[in-house]
Amino acid sequence: MSFIASRVAAIRSQGHGIRTLFRAPVLPGHLLIRSNSITNKGGSSSPLSLLGKKFKSTTAAETSVGAQIPLNHKQKATTEISADGQTYVTTFANGLRVVSENSPGHFTALGVYVDAGSRYESPSTSGYAHLMDRMAFRNSERFTSAESMAAIEKLGGSIMSSSSRECIMYQAAVFSEDVSTALGLLADTTLRPKYLEEELAELRETVPWELQDFMSKPDMFLPEKLHETAFRSGTLGNQLLCSPNQLNTATPDSLAAYHRRWYRPERIVVAAVGLEHADLVRLCSENGFADLAPASASNQIEQPALSADSTLSNRSWFNRMLGAGGAASAHSSIDPYAKSMYTGGTWLDAKPDTDFTQVYLGFKSSGIDDEKALYAYATLQMLLGGGGSFSAGGPGKGMYSRLYTRVLNQHAWIESCVAFHHCYTDAGLFGISASCRPRNEHALLDVVATEIEAVASGKNRIPSRSSMRRPYASQEGPTQAEVRRAKNQLKSNLLMNLESRMVQLEDLGRQIQVSGRKVPASTMIDHIENIRSADIAKAAGDLLENPATLLVQGKIDGVKKFYPQVCANHGIKI
């Protein structure tokens, strides 16, 4: 998950993604924008950009754009133009979509987006999206790994790959004269990769170090554990990273089978910003995107077989990494197209020697299909805001958000407190993460729960006794001033982030991939303006209708003893 909302909602996590980056030192660093947000490396936040108007459609031969596009006489393509005339989408006969916006500038942003990721994986392919990312820009039918790296360095731009729960993406930012070379590299790594045993051997040496680094950083590890605890039946709860045991059983043939299964034209979007649409379609045709065979009953690829030993070893590693009581058994049958099923749950990890105790309190929120709730949760996240105990302040830092004024400014022992929102196609996770010095963890949970309950009080909720003991923890719902400030900050973040070409590219590609349409910024602004205090209070109140997901890592004695009572006092199901 990953989208304009990962910047708008100030949180990333789509992420929460794993990225491989190849960067030459010519372009300035800000031209490559990571998909994580200001406060969290997670996924995908509430993607406001996935909502919008549909396109008006014409055949390629009937439009001025289509007339410039040389098409194979055996193929027919449809070109759609958005109502504002800014966005062009061409759909090849095989189902692959090509989308562009030609905004002026000195460089071009290119991206290939594949509808694949960890939520679609079964036990036999667990972690394979991670491996696809790590094998990117290496050997292909045209280039060796060394030749690919040499070509990337010669471009002098930025090329990167990323895997997340719902998307594997490949992006490049290059000077306009290098577009043909860059798109050729993207085409080779997505359409014609070669998986070699020596490349896998190299990954077996490097991935364990990556996993150790991942596990040592709570801000990366705990959001992953949050998903695994909240969605115990798999899908969004599947692990992002490939385990060492799974990596040991992976073969070039199994990776090739995974590639054939998911890298199909109907699941691929090629996007560009800063390039004429006719040129983009021509280059896509020349590089084989139009010739990719569509899915059919005759080319359905079965998933690689998984031995009992490797299944058990993968499960053992996952339990060691994420703790006991993990996701559904690795032996269970997983439907890769199943809807996510939120379960909630509790995970307490005793680490008494750590400097801080980390608390995550999350709830089920809406997916992208609920448009009004989507904007309400994005505004609610801005209203709650938060951050670290120390900030230099300044415009846009959220110093007047609730978690600053009512938590960080009131409790010197709290190190950080911030709202998060991970949003996906059919579900989301909204909540608050916080940290404090040991021995205050039970009070920290009470403070976090108070703020969730307080913002929901506008939905005819009765104040809890625990909250009424704190005069600053008013049981009033969001005030008009708070809502206005949150909406202004949300609009400001949206418009400022869209000034980045790489943000604009990812937003464009993912919108078309997920919803088949592009919403302009003006429409998003209108949706934000229509949010009222009652909408935010309702969204917050709806969070409490489902069981919570509670994670605590560090010194947990106080939380372990009191969390059932604390949650009950605030009307939180656990």
Question: Can you give a write-up of this model?
Answer:
Residues about 1-15, about 20-75, about 295-335 and about 465-475 have low confidence and may be disordered. It contains 20 helices and 15 strands. It is α+β, with helices and mostly antiparallel strands. The two termini are about 25 Å apart. The strands form 2 sheets. Strands 1-7-8-6-9-5-4-3-2 form a 9-stranded mixed sheet, sandwiched between helices. Helix 12 crosses helix 16 (about 480-495) and helix 12 crosses helix 19 (about 535-545). The chain has helices spanning about 5-10, 65, 130-135, 145-155, 180-190, 195-215, 220-230, 245-250, 250-260, 275-285, 310-320, 370-385, 400-410, 440-455, 465-470, 480-495, 500-515, 520-530, 535-545, 555-570; strands at about 20-25, 55-60, 80, 90, 95-100, 105-115, 160-165, 170-175, 270-275, 345-350, 355-365, 385-390, 415-425, 430-435, 550-555. A hairpin with a 4-residue loop joins strand 13 and strand 14 (about 430-435). It is globular.
